């Protein structure tokens, strides 16, 4: 056994013996310990900070003496004076190993640090971005052995960082010579790795050492809104998040009306492409301003979206997506230049677009898969991403199925008489007393319930303006629990229900949720409102149920609700309506904007890109439009909660009144088929 | 031994036995015979035409019966009626092998056909272009097994053509779906192979079968002129050639004045970049019009140029090339999009730029290397590409050296009192009677000598307007041979020489070459003219001599004169002037525009690109500016032919008069050093 000092790195546990005088960074590199460095050990970037531990370490079998490392040297002194070194820290490239020592690598000194996520069941993010910075010292040109400046830079990257086969973007050639000379033959290169050919590309050069940040954007391009997260590509931190209405809305609220617009108007697809790209650029300018950074430092971007948005963003006419067999122009992931998509970020910024799963199940669904990892789940998980379309995934580590179901925009408050987007003033929570049949509610922007003191003052500024998506779900579910609406979806009359809040409204009835007096419109839930929600939730349920059929199961172990809507929905109320399959309520969780999270994962970890590309190929795609059982499930699921499925867990938790308001008139739809309620 | 029929292909000599009924194309493919096909054997492209031979073939040991192949079938009948099949030809995909047969594959049916070059010593061109066409039948989309149209196209290319890892340019996605449907799921794809990653890229799609041509451009971007050859990428044929003055001339006649312009004027480099790219586009429009083709069918392009033009064309400031150590931004070959260089050809057209050899020896010199292949020569060859700079290469298959020498523009007629570009009216050939000292000459645009009958009428239209580069070389050499000018370059007086054509001209004398009367200017050769040519030829010789020193040789086996100027120069006169080393005159040949030819080779054969990239790395670069002996050689070479070198072969062929017109005045430069004359 060698007499060289023993070095033990934590948290990795990697250990080895090194000759006296070996710098800690050198030892770390030789052991494959994840210790960052931009300057390559020249003592100028300070990214290789470590914390030596002293004293007894029975676990490791070593005692660390106070003089285990060399004394602070001039480089560390200077750095400390200039920027301040955290007490107890050393620069790994300066501190030399003299005796046995235990060295801790703090998370901020790790290249592949973990990015913390709040939810335990979600996939971890390990930092491994496509863009990284490398400081190099380049040989000066030699007339007697002529070679291009670029070729010497590439040689330096190979020699000093062991990075092979580096290429340069054309624009690099324009800035190369001045940068090298300004930096006295020392430059920091931003390299992008992870094109299809996996050759690193020089994207940018800074004269001398650049130890600032570079950024990436994770973008969820929805039919209605575009949401972007601006991330620091070194720390993984989200430095700003922002959203914007999709400017394509003026061409059509929902996807099919945009496809129609493209079909009916020559140049219409291009108009919509321009609109969404313009909107994207406006959003990027806004988010960079919010974060106070130069947009030119955004060097990578990841985009997820449904298939129609995918095509329109890429400039592909979505015509084929409007009709069977719903053929995508391309389903594979795309590695592009942001500039090729008309985006003004760094001139060499890359754009990665996740693969699509099928003609109706897009890159957004793939991003949900990446975030929620059903393919890695031990138990059987149903993942529902509720938007204008619902993308549904069901599976576990053995098998994953996916489909899309056309829920329409009712869940977003559209097609609802008092419906509105989730904004201050919108009713978002509803409770109805089963005895009095009177409601109380909360509106967005106010923490008080409507029957609490001070409510009127608290909402004075916003007023009560309508009902948002989660509000209408709760209202109808509460009406069903209070016996105001029957299993077929019919609202009873004042007499049938026993409350004057049920008022005649044409040939049916409406329920008055709020009457603010003569000056403001009454907010009611109408029978057509219930019909719209019935259609939407029946589509959603039928899709989920179809996947359960395909998998040969009647139950799921857990349900994940994704999407902004999923974050606000009450699982109990969703189940009362029969939106989602019967399941213990504590097994229904919200994943928030899982598509956006998936985009962020792909932005921060380039290995995840390859992974999701492979996973998507293994997902079994089900096309609801041509499945005969989908129609049957849909009809059954029109009832509240369902005319065929037993929902035993739900029935155990709540008592659904056995009311029937069908008096034989024309509105008895659903009653005919109702087998139980 | 099998009883299957024996098939022998000529000219390859490949042979094999195949079951009765095997199509000829199938047999060819299995044997690796070079037999073309775009449609993959579907009988629609007619590219696989073969000529069966019948009768006795003792050489091959077979007798071919009249019924060795199946009868003409309906496909061949239809093709013959529609387009006419050359008598004796069959379609290889239709004709089936029934008995032993000898099949000739005519050159036009070979993919890798040879392109004929006129000169025996030059490198052959084997067709292997980067862009090729492939017809495929693509699976229709299936809702139950969804996949993108692109992914199915890529699958078809793999299955039907065994082409792997195909990628598509972004713009292909825009045209993909309509093309597939218009062609009823049959398309012809243009694939580009030979990017750095060697993955084929889909550049263009035609619905159904496209059996027209696609084109490429080989461009020699000179400081003075841009010359382009438009080539058919299937046949290799040059369908049009055209040239244009380099529009950068307005920023400076020679390279260094353009570098100065960039240094003195902010934005000057960009102005020159724009100018040359605009000129290029004008030239491409012109050449496409001449050939009567759609410029959008130009899918590949190759560019060669000197380092300053290289940088200016790429948009790189040439500042560093104006001063030691003459560092190139990049010396490696570049694979680019033509669109990235501002060129409007096919939107996906590629641009390949040959590697540069050194800061003064550019991609044009590399192209000369490719064309003239000194690295493959058994004997020691000196290659001189004469332009504003002379690029000089010396070597054989063991070792090749290269340098550049600043000859200046005198060889192009600039800096000469009566000098002009080579255009009708310019004197291009000169003879002087040693006895009478009277000249006769020929002008461009007229086949008669000036002393022949009808000359005056023949040149009436153009007149006699000046002397071009080759004319001034001949005039001075003839003056030297006739004893009108001495070894130091001094013109004698009328008395010294014995002709009134020697007239006083300031402090020296001039020789009257042509006196057209009072109405037109006299054309004379002045002593400053001789001085300019002396400087130019001394630079050229000194460069060549320096390389000979480095190689330790005093002689070369042969000399190749490249460049347009080299094509017109008289080897004897060049040697009398001491422009080129002493060498048997029959070993001095002209290679024409070898740089342009090299560009054409790289255009037509993608393997040649990799070859020249490797060759260039092996060439030893000599920087004349820092070689002390260059100055010495230059001074010696100022004399006519040389004040230090013996030129024994020349002296054996011609008698150089031992005259000396130095009367001790101020103009005796060179006489002082003259050791022999």
TrEMBL record, chains A, B:
Superkingdom classification of source: Bacteria
Entry-linked InterPro entries: 2Fe-2S_ferredoxin-like_sf (IPR036010), 2Fe-2S_ferredoxin-type (IPR001041), Beta-grasp_dom_sf (IPR012675), Corrinoid_activation_enz (IPR052911), Raco-like_middle (IPR041414), Raco-like_middle_sf (IPR042259), RACo_C (IPR027980), RACo_linker (IPR040506)
GO molecular function, one term: iron-sulfur cluster binding
Signal peptide per UniProt: none
CDD domains cross-referenced by the UniProt entry: fer2 (cd00207)
Domain 2Fe-2S ferredoxin-type: 5-109
A Pfam family recorded for this sequence: RACo_C_ter
PANTHER family named in the record: IRON-SULFUR CLUSTER PROTEIN, IRON-SULFUR CLUSTER-BINDING PROTEIN-RELATED
Designated name of the protein: ASKHA domain-containing protein
Lineage: Bacteria, Pseudomonadati, Pseudomonadota, Alphaproteobacteria, Rhodobacterales
């Amino acid at each position: 056994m060698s007499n060289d000092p023993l070095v033990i790195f934590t948290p990795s546990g990697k250990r080895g013996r090194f000759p006296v005088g070996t710098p800690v960074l050198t030892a770390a590199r030789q052991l494959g310990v994840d210790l960052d460095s931009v300057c390559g050990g020249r003592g100028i970037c300070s990214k290789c900070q470590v914390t030596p531990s002293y004293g007894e370490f029975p676990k490791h079998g070593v005692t660390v003496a106070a003089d285990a490392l060399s004394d602070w040297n001039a480089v560390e002194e200077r750095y400390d004076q200039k920027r301040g070194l955290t007490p107890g820290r050393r620069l790994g490239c300066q501190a030399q190993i003299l005796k046995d020592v235990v060295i801790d690598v703090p998370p901020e000194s790790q290249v592949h640090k973990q990015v913390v996520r709040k939810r335990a069941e979600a996939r971890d993010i390990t930092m491994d971005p496509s863009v990284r910075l490398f400081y190099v010292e380049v040989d000066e040109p030699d007339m007697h052995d002529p070679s291009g400046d670029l070729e010497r830079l590439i040689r330096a990257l190979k020699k000093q960082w062991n990075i092979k086969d580096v290429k340069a973007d054309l624009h690099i050639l324009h800035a190369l010579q001045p940068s090298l000379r300004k930096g006295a033959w020392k430059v920091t290169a931003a390299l992008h790795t992870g094109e299809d050919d996996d050759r690193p590309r020089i994207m940018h050069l800074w004269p001398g050492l650049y130890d600032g940040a570079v950024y990436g954007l994770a973008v969820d391009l929805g039919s209605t809104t575009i949401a972007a997260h601006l991330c620091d590509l070194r720390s993984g931190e989200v430095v700003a998040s922002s959203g914007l209405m999709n400017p394509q809305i003026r061409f059509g609220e929902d996807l099919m009306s945009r496809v129609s617009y493209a079909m009916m108007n020559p140049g219409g697809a291009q108009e919509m492409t321009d609109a969404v790209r313009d909107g994207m650029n406006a959003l990027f300018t806004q988010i960079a301003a919010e974060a106070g950074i130069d947009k030119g430092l955004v060097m990578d971007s990841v985009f997820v979206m449904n298939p129609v948005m995918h095509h329109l963003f890429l400039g592909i006419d979505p015509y084929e997506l409007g009709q069977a067999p719903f053929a995508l122009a391309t389903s594979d992931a795309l590695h592009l230049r942001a500039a090729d998509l008309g985006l003004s970020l760094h001139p060499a910024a890359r754009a990665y677009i996740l693969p699509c799963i099928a003609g109706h199940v897009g890159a957004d669904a793939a991003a949900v898969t990446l975030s929620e990892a059903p393919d890695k789940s031990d138990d059987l998980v149903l993942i529902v991403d509720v938007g204008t379309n619902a993308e549904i995934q069901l599976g576990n580590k053995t098998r994953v199925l996916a489909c899309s179901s056309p829920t329409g925009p009712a869940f977003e408050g559209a097609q609802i008489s008092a419906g509105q987007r989730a904004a201050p003033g919108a009713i978002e929570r509803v409770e109805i007393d089963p005895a009095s049949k009177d409601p109380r509610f909360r509106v967005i922007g106010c923490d008080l319930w409507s029957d609490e003191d001070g409510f009127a003052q608290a909402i004075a500024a916003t007023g009560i303006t309508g009902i948002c998506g989660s509000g209408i779900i709760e209202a109808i579910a509460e009406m069903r629990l209070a016996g105001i609406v029957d299993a077929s979806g019919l609202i009873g009359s004042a007499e049938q229900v026993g409350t004057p809040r049920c008022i005649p409204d044409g040939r049916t009835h409406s329920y008055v949720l709020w009457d603010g007096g003569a000056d403001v419109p009454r907010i009611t839930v109408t029978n057509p409102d219930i019909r719209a929600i019935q259609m939407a939730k029946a589509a959603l349920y039928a899709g989920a149920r179809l996947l359960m059929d395909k998998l040969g199961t009647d139950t799921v172990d857990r349900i994940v609700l994704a999407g902004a809507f999923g974050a606000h929905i009450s699982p109990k109320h969703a189940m009362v309506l029969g939106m989602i399959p019967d399941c213990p309520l504590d097994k229904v969780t919200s994943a928030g904007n899982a598509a956006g999270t998936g985009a962020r994962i792909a932005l921060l970890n380039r290995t995840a890109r390859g992974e999701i590309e492979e996973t998507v190929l293994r997902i079994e795609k089900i096309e609801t439009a041509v499945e005969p059982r989908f129609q049957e499930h849909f009809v059954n699921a029109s009832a509240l909660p369902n005319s065929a499925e037993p929902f035993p867990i739900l029935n155990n938790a709540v008592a659904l009144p056995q009311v029937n308001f069908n008096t034989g008139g024309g509105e008895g739809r659903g009653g005919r088929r109702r087998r139980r309620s």
